[in-house]
């Protein structure tokens, strides 16, 4: 600083001084300079007039010194004055100064870094030393640190760190550098990190001298990094780096094969951990620490771990205290710690003191170790790392076990075990459980220990020896025969043995009472050795059968094999319980109404195991973690039925045990529990799931009779099968069935018939012979002795006699006017066979009520009769139709008159005596009726024939009868017609008229009964007319004829025989050809009578005035018909109405044999009309 | 290469766990089990931030003195854990990632097997051989 008065002074002295200064600077190679010219305002004022701007002091200086670098000269005007000008100049000056300083630093540092890099490039040359280079780069770091550029400073240290690490790795790979040798020397001091000093000069010196050990170098490096990081406000990075560093150092020492006292490294790590933690605690407040536990907890846990291993190493954990060898080791380790550093001498909680104290005595170690462990557990718990916390807890438990304090250990072990079990880690489970067993054994918790032993004995993760050991533990306990009063120890069976399968024999699991039912259990023993069981018992819950009465039917049980229940295999330890959430067991429920089982009230799905599925999983302890809870409270149900099996030896693997099951009482039995007893130990399976049930039922005896063939034919002996299901009833010797015939169904007495006895599974058991005694109404069948729930089967031969009178449809009036009462007969829908229901009642020995039995028989034949006439001669034709599916032999057809009129002779016109009637075929038989005197009015005939089945070799012919009645057989009138062509014509021509001459001749005198017919009532009217004449009405109709004039007319026939009456009718044929004669119908004409209307008969109806030839019997008496002028007869209903108004004449048809038409089948040749060219073609 | 590879189900039980030196198996089980803590921590931490674009790879879960534990979680919360020896310093992050990718692919193949029951332990031979290829050859 040179005061310059004016330009002259400057020129005179200051300039030279400055030149000298510049020369000096240049001599030192420094290019960093600046000239500050301070201008004061008063000086300025003074020179204001005579100093030109060009020649000002500043310009001069600039001229002289700053030719190239104009910015090296700064003007500071009036620095002490508070004016804007001064402010401006100050800021300009500072800006310039900063820029120049930065430039200078950049330049210098750049040069430095250049040098450093050059040095680093030489690292592969021999003689290069890391320590030297370290010092160089650290210098740079120092500069940055001084410049407050901590980031850059840290970078330098990180680079050094990385370089060193790389060298170590290369060394490990076999590329060793010479200078690394010094780091491979044995470590003699393990004082740990020292983070309280910003720079640990002691270690730095060591590094400078190249004598530092690896740990010292690392310590120093980390110490520096730590300091910088804390400057950077990144304390959590310190903890992270610390943990990395510690792990890394351990690895590096190993890699460099540095020899170290055993435990020394542990000491170092322990001290370092604590030191880092202390350092962090020192620079953070409590709240920050708590919020960042996750960063520090690793160090805590690491320290705990190391202290533990130190403790084990120095014999501070065992109950007896350290041995001399271990004491020596402790002393050596403590020696390596050196003296406590000055910074911490006065601190009570320094890591150094802690370690020293912990290693000094067993009690102190325990205190420190517990403190650390609990701190770590708490921290882990606080941040939710429960698994880590449990692991630390488990090592704590190990410690307690070593100390002989199992009570403390138990809870930690249980926590850890619960965690592993709930997450399904089998190996840790096994390991922890083993420790648990040890702990429980020490604690004397017998039940728990046995349970754990059972688990371990069945644990596949263990070796066989271990498993056998634990199994033996159980067996030894079981064999301790203490006083019998002592409560047996009940353990869960699931880990002792697994119920795999349960099989019922018989498979239906439903038996009638008293039957032997067996249950086969398949138990898979998990034990490694054979276990002799004193007893294996299953408790059975008996439920009185409600069965059908409650209306609820269970859906069919889903069983892959009938009678077999498979139990899902829950692999106890391998599968986590969280995955083994019970699956829904759904079942269909149908609620049927009690009255009618076919109607469904409601149906739905029901979850059977809601109690398992809906259970809150967090609150209730899982049954799979038996070590967490007291053993399942297994109390065998009192009073329950038990299935017992004594002295069973369970071999490892699957065992099959067979129980005989009680089945005396009716009801549903449910297997509930299973209990295996080994001495003092009981293994109990508290619930058998899925539900295992069997039912015992009782059945009433049942008797059924059913046809052996699909149809029973009447008239022939037929076989019917009788089946007797004995149910609960035992058929004793002497028991008999009494069959009472209600209808005429004889049991054919084949005095003995074979019977077969089947058991309930339809196996043939026995055969026996029945004795049948039969009177006309009652048949007694003596039964062979049959055990209950068996089926007795035999065949009976039954015969149903065909009723001789024709079976008529219902509501048809018989000859006597009664309704035919045979309601049980009906027609077979398929083949129109007439069916007859036959009933019988059976008195059974087991019941006071008789059992009604009904059999249906079918009549194989259908008979029809008809009367044929030829003038006066009469023939009876019977048509026998075989409607069954069987062929029959027919013989000995006979027609007889019931009253055996001597004057009557029935002469058979049938040639064959023996005939085969095939199925669905008919046989016609004709008889010539001859009589000598008067023909009886009514002929009561019986057609009889013998038949036998054609398929049977032994032809036992059975009779068949058919009764029928013929009335008014005699021919009264004969009608003869003749067609005559028109006059002069030889033949008839179509379209031209021709004549029909019809002659009606009376053949027989009117009989008395004929007179009686209408006489009694007609007398009043007919008396006035000719007494001996009968009025007839004729009617001519033909489809191919047209009647000219009247087609019908009244004829009065004289009463004497051979009276003849001729009628001429004009006809015209419509077609040419051989035309049949037109139909001529003759009716009896009854003049209108006053009281005829009073006798309406609705049943008799003359249909369309047709004379029917069918054998429908017509009632002459009181038969009414209305007459119309057109010759057609209306329905009775309308006629009846008319008759009320006006008495109408009545027409009455003759019965079939009474009028004989001679020209019935006659034809006449009709020629086509000559001029007619119409050719008609009828194509059909 | 890995010394232990584990596949852990969503419910945190092991679907597959295999380690190289048999004598240390238990220790690996403990290690993997404990690492689940960190996995859960990371999942929940990430889940808050960006649930959608979460990366499956969770990176280094935690180092221990001897091992480095890496984790990866699938979208269905199945966790893959690879334990590598700490002394094996040549292992790069990229290699770990590719190992996880291979593991994930193979796991997907297992899941695609119609005969595999989701939730069962993995017994696939293909998976096993793939894991073996990733493991340090037993010393």
TrEMBL record, chain A:
InterPro entries: Ig_TRAPPC10 (IPR056917), TPR-like_helical_dom_sf (IPR011990), TRAPPC10/Trs130 (IPR045126), TRAPPC10/Trs130_C (IPR022233), TRAPPC10/Trs130_N (IPR056913). Residues 1006-1025 are annotated as: Disordered. Keywords: Golgi apparatus, Transport. It comes from the Eukaryota. Residues 5-238 form the TRAPPC10/Trs130 N-terminal domain. Its main location: Golgi. Residues 1006-1015 have a biased composition (Acidic residues). GO terms for biological process: early endosome to Golgi transport; intra-Golgi vesicle-mediated transport. GO terms for cellular component: cytosol; TRAPPII protein complex. It holds the Pfam family TRAPPC10_1st. Residues 938-1167 form the TRAPPC10/Trs130 C-terminal domain. It is found in: Golgi apparatus. Residues 703-857 form the TRAPPC10 Ig-like domain. This is Trafficking protein particle complex subunit 10. It comes from Oncorhynchus mykiss (Rainbow trout). The lineage of its organism: Eukaryota, Metazoa, Chordata, Craniata, Vertebrata.
UniProtKB/TrEMBL annotation, chain B:
One of its GO terms (cellular component) is perinuclear region of cytoplasm. Its main location: cytoplasm. Gene3D superfamilies: 3.30.450.70. It is found in: Cytoplasm, Perinuclear region. InterPro entries: Longin-like_dom_sf (IPR011012), Sedlin (IPR006722), TRAPPC2L (IPR044760). SUPFAM superfamilies: SNARE-like. Keywords: ER-Golgi transport, Transport. It comes from the Eukaryota. Belongs to the TRAPP small subunits family. Sedlin subfamily. This is Trafficking protein particle complex subunit 2-like protein.
